[in-house]
Automatic annotation (TrEMBL):
Pfam families tied to this protein: TetR_N (PF00440)
DNA-binding segment(s): 29-48
Domain HTH tetR-type: 6-66
MF terms (GO), sorted A to Z: DNA-binding transcription factor activity; transcription cis-regulatory region binding
UniProtKB keywords: DNA-binding, Transcription, Transcription regulation
This protein's name: Transcriptional regulator, repressor protein MphR(A)
InterPro entries: Homeodomain-like_sf, HTH-type_TetR-like_transc_reg, HTH_TetR
Keyword DNA-binding: yes
The species this protein was found in: Mesorhizobium alhagi CCNWXJ12-2
Domain of life: Bacteria
Amino acid sequence: MPRTKTLSDEQVLDAALKLLHESGPEALTFERVARACGLSAATLVQRFRSKAGLKQSTLLLAWDRLDEKTAQLAATVPKTPDGAVELLVALSSDYGGIETYAEGLLVLREDLRDPLLRSRGAAWKAALSSALEGCFSQVRHAPQGIGLLTASQWQGTLLWWSFDPQGSLESYVEASLRRFIYAIVVSRSAG
């Protein structure tokens, strides 16, 4: 008798995450994830109980990875306004082109619908804002809350780029954030 193929939950969720990013949240069915990872749908039902459980576990893995990437970047970028831009440009590199970004908005919808996932988003906002705040700690005239202001500008920049996706997202984000920082921090210290 052939031996049953086993995969860790993380390996299964990797396959589910890939499927989610390629085909959107509605693609996360036990049947499709089973085909993607090579396990039976029944095995996946035993592990994740429901489609909602599978989706939540997949998105929690995505949050874990975003938290890890954010912490790693925050630890390595210079603690300067340029470091803040570098951090956010690096985070933007995962969005890809306009189609990938648009699919990502469907994933965001799922995060907003689920209280546990929404709380992970709130925690990431706090961690990202704190990391960005640290990049402005040596700037004399940085306004209070500059970390959240910069993160908010970044999120708005992503959205505005999506309406007219000319050039690379990373270049657009970098140019926009540099203008923002100049307007908020540099011009403020000159006044």
